[in-house]
Write a structure and sequence with these properties.
36% helix, Rossmann fold, globular, binds 1,3,4-trihydroxy-5-OXO-cyclohexanecarboxylic acid, 5 helices, 5-stranded parallel sheet, alpha/beta
């Protein structure tokens, strides 16, 4: 298997490492991306990564992935709970789509219990801290292998 994977990170995830470490851990986004890239490249994939605090940037990255990427792995941060526009963008992408969270939104405040993205992704991996990213890559690899 080969191809490019878009790894997206939404608002406030640039602060990982210092933001609520008791919830999100001490690993920085750079470290999560580096680990994901290493796993992906060992399996023959390349990774395009973007973090943005702006919804429109994430939507445009999804558009650019259409026809060029085989999968999107995204931690949309709080946009997960609010963004119908990001959901609509994801719905236009034909490849594999995995929603990732470091924490378990279902076990937190009620406003985090809704995911606008859930209906358009293959599945969601949440609550495993840094391991969530490893598991997301594994999900992409296996789904593509099986297809
Ligand atoms: C998060 C969970 C979201 O509810 C929150 O807004 C984030 C991070 C996670 O990785 O656990 O920013 O997506």
């Amino acid at each position: 298997m080969s191809g490019e994977i878009l790894l997206l990170a939404g608002p406030n995830l640039n602060l990982l490492g210092e933001r609520s470490p008791e919830i999100y851990g001490t690993t920085t986004l750079l470290e999560h991306v580096g680990r994901f890239r290493a796993l992906a490249s060992a399996a023959g994939f390349s990774v395009r990564d973007l973090q943005s605090n702006f919804e429109g940037d994430l939507i445009e990255a999804v558009h650019a992935a259409r026809g060029t990427c085989v999968a999107i792995v995204l931690n949309a941060g709080a946009l997960t709970h609010t963004s119908w526009a990001l959901r609509d963008a994801l719905a236009t992408f034909d490849g594999v789509k995995i929603e990732v969270h470091l924490s378990s939104p279902a076990a937190r405040e009620p406003f985090r219990h809704v995911s606008t993205l859930a209906g358009v992704v293959n599945g969601s991996i949440a609550g495993f801290g840094a391991l969530s990213y490893d598991l997301a890559f594994e999900a992409v690899r296996r789904i593509l292998d099986a297809s």
